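We close this part of the discussion by returning to an individual protein. The encoding preserves chain order, so positions in sequence and tokens coincide. The sequence in question and its structure tokens are set out directly beneath this paragraph:

===
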Amino acid sequence: MSPAQPETDHPGKTIGIVGGGSIGIAFAVVFARAGHRVRLSEPDETRRGEVPAILAHKLGDLAAFNLIDEPASAIAARVEVVADMAEAVAGAIYVQECAPERLALKQAIFAELDRLASPAVVLASASSAITASAFARDLPGRDRILVVHPGNPPFLIPVAEMVPAPFTSGEAVAFARELLASAGMAPVLVNKEIEGFVFNRLQGALLREAYCLVRDGVASVEDVDRIVREGLGLRWSVIGPFETVDLNTQGGIASHAEKMGPAYARMGAERGQDDPWTPGLVEKVAAERRALLPLEGWAERVAWRDRRLMALIRHRKAEPAA
């Protein structure tokens, strides 16, 4: 399989979307906002009738916040809602499946998509945890199939995990990456298939501990949310977890691991987890951080982080939560 490259300088190609749930509609916003025509298939007649109003509402909100560059009605006009997958796939350069997270359903959908779509069309699943190997390994056109898992909603949270199976071709991955980037997404390649990928494994680790803290009477649901909202989440909206601890400790991430690693190991052991930060692992992580930020630039980056947080806090004060 050798998919043609997306014509990013000439939007107006057709994107097929399978499923009219929240993620399917959100992807319709992403691609229509980028200038593509979108055909979204939804088998349920009632839901199909609801999609245009939901789409218009989301685009209206984006317009109210000056996050689109043309009238909402012009973007909405690029989206056609159809009943059958065959209609959505016809003439499409890329198909994004957004059906519910059920293995048997995805297996059936991709068997049909593989039959309907031209061999040059890349087929992607918005699966949150199920790998492409689980639903596509026996398909004749499996080399053009991968997972593209977005943050929700993708028209506001641009990260998109690209998770190829071992059988997915490099051409399919490159095509998906270029198309997503041209539509304003931030594609991230996940190097190997693993249930939950990266986004949901990180989210799941925090959620598991949050449930335990509530169960054990350590904190209330609202207090856990407050700590994340006003603490971890505030900081993580500027920098990620590795850079956070790198900048929190004089000497960087290696110093942090030396000082705090034993405490984190004890916390993990309380939950039955045994994943030590071995010297080799710490050395690998530290080397990647130092390649991104030499220690001589550490103080300047700390000051940058603080200024970014100041700007964010200023914005939050100006736009208080409802």
About this structure: The first strand starts at residue 14 and ends at 18. Strands lie at 14-18, 37-41, 79-82, 92-97, 122-125, 145-150, 159-164, 186-189. The radius of gyration is 22 Å. Residues 6-10 have pLDDT under 50 and may be disordered.
